Structure formats: structure tokens, C-alpha cells
Amino acid sequence: xxxxxxxxxxxxxxxxxxxxxxxxxxxxxxxxxxxxxxxxxxxxxxxxxxxxxxxxxxxxxxxxxxxxxxxxxxxxxxxxxxxxxxxxxxxxxxxxxxxxxxxxxxxxxxxxxxxxxxxxxxxxxxxxxxxxxxxxxxxxxxxxxxxxxxxxxxxxxxxxxxxxxxxxxxxxxxxxxxxxxxxxxxxxxxxxxxxxxxxxxxxxxxxxxxxxxxxxxxxxxxxxxxxxxxxxxxxxxxxxxxxxxxxxxxxxxxxxxxxxxxxxxxxxxxxxxxxxxxxxxxxxxxxxxxxxxxxxxxxxxxxxxxxxxxxxxxxxxxxx
Length: 320
Known about the structure:
Elements: E1 9-13, H1 19-26, E2 32-33, E3 37-39, H2 55-60, H3 65-70, E4 77-79, H4 85-90, E5 100-104, H5 107-110, H6 114-121, E6 126-131, H7 134-147, H8 156-164, H9 183-191, E7 199-203, H10 204-209, H11 211-222, E8 241-242, H12 245-254, H13 256-263, H14 266-276, E9 277-278, H15 287-308
Parallel strand pairs: 1-5, 1-6, 2-5, 3-4, 6-7
Antiparallel strand pairs: 8-9
């Protein structure tokens, strides 16, 4: 890999903020290269403690990188931990004529070391972040954890407080529910190190409602063709819960779910998902839970507005 083919832009977050769909859309663009592993977490490695991972997270990120790379990186992988510089460079070995070369890793937003690590790698790199209302972000993460048998808690506030009280905390160590929504503190690290013009802030709600306009704006920011026609034919990461909760816990704990994802052809995965999960009659957040989170995040939302020179309450009116 020569100097012109190293990553020059980073999508730094946030968890449950639309980065998966953004990865799939940008990956279609002929002038943009994204690695076959959506989240490499390479520049967060100083803050990541593999030995403390939750068992289910350790299963999620398990990947034999030597074999994966040697076999030609044929399959798209959602997440892994690419600590080695050699492995990381190999993920970009297929760059050809693309001019915007990216890395999409949500850990870069929350892990304190990431901003400095990226700056040391490329001080001129561009940052993209999708910010979602922290209340709906938490709820989406909570539903995901119920789906993936990462929690059994049926009371959101108890779940949040128990998670925050864990003796060991960190990426993959606990769920970081509340921490992940402190966008002001996290983005401040990037604004301190990179020119403001190199940081693109997108609001998830605008991206969701106006994907064509948002993607065109991102392409302009990345200096690639802003009129490219993206395929919006498939949805990514929509909320659902297990049809058979006990069976789902057994399948997750045994690693069977991960194995099925690896061996079932991509064309059949949607059908398999419909058998295992349902998006009908999903629970909703109570007024008590909403008020708890409004109080928790109110100051963070105000500070975020000052940092980015935009009022997030335009998109998140619940904080007005």
C-alpha cells in the first residue's frame, strides 16, 4: 500500500446512529473505498481490553484475521478488532482508483485515545459523525441487546444504572448506554485536534428523512461525485426482537447465531432473520424513562450546540 491509498476519512460514530447503512451506501460509490470489515476499531486499540470483553461481545468480534486476509477477504464482516498495522494495511490492499478511502468505526467516538491516534496517522483526515437523539439512541441499543440476548433487564432505568455501576467499564466491557450519548465530550477531542472544516456533523433524523440529500452532502465533503445514484433497496439494522426468547439465548451463548450468519448465504439471511425475529409489537419507552433521560442529557445537548455551532434541538425538540 503506497501513501496515496491509506484512509483519508473516518466515520467515527455513533452506535445505533445509522453508520451501518451509511457504510453500505458509501461502499457502492466507485470513487469511495471502504474495507471489507465495516468496523476495524484499529485506532481505538489503546483503550480496548480484550481480556475484559463481555463473553457475547468476544464472540461477536472473533475472527481469524490471517486466514481471512489470506483467503482474499471475500465476505463482508460487520466488526472485528484489527490491532496489527500489517492486518490493517492488508484491508486496503485492493484500493485502485478510489480517491476517498475510509474507515467506519463507532469506537472512535467514545474511546478517548482515538482522536490523537488518527491525528498522528493523518492530521489532514476528514471526520464524519452521525448524531442521533441520545434518548432514541439508547432505546435502539437497548432493543438490540434484548434481541441479541445481551441483557434480560425489563426496566430501562435499572438497566442503565446497573450498567453504569459496573466495576469494569469500556468498549466491549459493558454496554456504555449513558456514556455513548455524551456527544459534546467526545466530539470536543476532535475539534481540539482537527480543523473545523474537516469535521462533518450529520443528524441522524435528517439522514433518515432525506437520505439522498444527506449522501450528496457527504460526497461533496469527500470531494467525489455528489450526483451518484445510490441503491436504497435494502434496509439495514432495523429493530426487532426474538420470537423465541429462551431459544435465542441458547443460540447466542453457544455461538450458533454467529455460525449461522457465517455459513448461510447472504441472499438467504433476510429469510432466516424473519424466522428468528419479529418487528411486531415492539415495546415503547415510558414517560418516566423519557423524563429520566431528558434530565440526564439536557446539559450535554446544550454544550453540543455550542461546540458545533448548531442547535441540536431543531432535530431533537424533546430537549426544548
